[in-house]
Amino acid sequence: MGAAGSKLEKALGDQFPEGERYFGLENFGNTCYCNSVLQALYFCVPFREQLLDYYANNKSMADAEENLLTCLADLFSQISSQKKKTGVIAPKRFVQRLKKQNELFRSYMHQDAHEFLNFLLNELVDILEKEAQSAKDDQDPLPPSEKVANGPIAGPVNGTKKEPLVTWVHKNFQGILTNETRCLQCETVTARDETFFDLSLDIEQNSSITSCLKNFSSTETLNAEDKFFCDKCCSLQEAQKRMKIKKPPQILVIHLKRFKYIEQLGRYKKLSYRVVFPLELKLSDTVEDADIEYSLFAVVVHVGSGPNHGHYVSLVKSHNHWLFFDDENVEMIDESAVQTFFGSSQEYSSNTDHGYILFYESTASGHKS
To answer: What is the pTM of this model?
Structure first.
């Protein structure tokens, strides 16, 4: 990519951001699902900075035990410390570790970028939680009398529940949804909270992210066989149910459900629907009813007409420039080109490059890409 790299440097010229690196990632046989997500995460600057801080503070541990977190930190550190501004890096160690860790990603078949992102974020959280727990155990060892084969006998003091650890991965990506159910007989509202790292949205033809989010939060009536058991009435009752965002995340990841199982066909079909995603997004339908503003900084794009084959690329906004990452290749694109990835308004279109995972950053977080 020597020529392409120098072409990118020429295109940016004096505007090349100080200290920034734009590197393509080598493809190890259908690993574009992984490369496209890694580029989006690398340009999620708060996440990158915290990962590199973690790496700097845990270098000795990295030698002790390799895991997906140390491999990712090592890859990001390699990219950020390159002498050249552009080039290609082979994420070999990371891909090997990923395949070792999860058999789902072992084959050379086409994989799903969203499944990979989900697995990766949850895996990073598991590693950080285990590390925090073992550090706590080292600081606070139990006396021998209280140690038993299956862990300490003592239960939680006064029945208090252990607070879940909030890692820097949570701080970036985790939001909270509240599931409200209102009994139509006694008007009692039952609310159940659940955390999320991304929102998976159903899509419709010629729609927008705003309308998809509205549908996600729309009220649904539970009746007939779907009645709700109301604790106050002690019986099954008709009820209204809706989802609201209680705590919006710093980084809002939106997954468009482009792959739908079609009963009659007995298989998945790709929906090439045109779904407009704005560069600036206002998130309403939150519990506080306050509009939260987000700015788009990355898009993972699925290229191809079906779910079981195709290709992934990513669009990334860095220092007010939009870049296009396609495995080893990196090039500058115009902001107006982003809209060519909304989807197709006709069923059979020659355009098969469709936005699949969108990364938005809260503009209140004080960081701008």
So the answer is: 0.89
